Amino acid sequence: MKLIEHNPLATDEELAAFLTASVSTIRLDRAVLGVPELRERMRSMAQKATSRLRSLKQSEVVGDLLELEPNKWALSVLETRREMAFRETDMVWDHYIYAQASSIAIAVVEADLVIVDSMRGEYKGHARVGDSLVARAKVGVHKDEKYIVSVRTKVGEKEIFVGRFIAAVVSHSGPA
């Protein structure tokens, strides 16, 4: 149970490998303990997270927002598809990686309207079609209506993007 609490995105196969058990044993134990399968855990997490979402509509978030603690941290997952690939390769276009990071940087700030003022980032690896991009945002310091948000995106254990965003709360009359 603690393993799933620590990593709610763990698949049955990953749990089996970690615990040196068979996948069928993991599934049986999960059923006995009342722990839902990965897809259901993700759906439940997404519903809870989006209920706290204020700065974006759910449809504006790139990927699935799974966890959100406003003005503190957030977690999203983007399942990559064929149409996200560059030309005739299986490599995902970088703008999808950036879009996920940017949207989670905005989503984590609790305000009605938030934009990215600036960003410094580095691509550290590539994503391929079929990969799950897991982005984690963490809010650092903020002054007035500007928040520094760090976003790290991983595929498995490999970090592929690191960005530092300055997210600005915008009043209806213009930037703060």
From TrEMBL:
Superkingdom: Bacteria
SUPFAM superfamilies reported for this sequence: Thioesterase/thiol ester dehydrase-isomerase (SSF54637)
**According to the entry, what is the taxonomic lineage of the organism?**
Bacteria, Thermotogati, Synergistota, Synergistia, Synergistales
Entry's InterPro entries?
HotDog_dom_sf, WH-like_DNA-bd_sf
Protein name, UniProt field: Acyl-coenzyme A thioesterase PaaI-like protein
